[in-house]
Amino acid sequence: MSLSASKLAPAMLVLVGAVGLSGCATKSYVRDQIAPVSQRVDTLEARLQETDGTAKAALAEAQANGQRIDQINGRVDGVEQRLQAQEMQPKRPRH
Question: How far apart are CA 43 and CA 51, in angstroms?
Fold first, then answer.
């Protein structure tokens, strides 16, 4: 049983076409599939940058507040020392 080339050619053409079309995605299909993911990534990147900016601003404010607290502590220590020095001095009678 031999098949002639004229009978085999259409079957081969269908087979090659099916394999060729089923394995490849077009550029537009890939773009359509990736577009929503890309948009989500862009949105998340923007939110991350905003959060990063907020965190950096909070850190700077906390550091500035820490410096102010250190300054106030130094002043309070000075006042306490003067108060202790006055308490150690003998009291003068009031007339």
Answer: 12
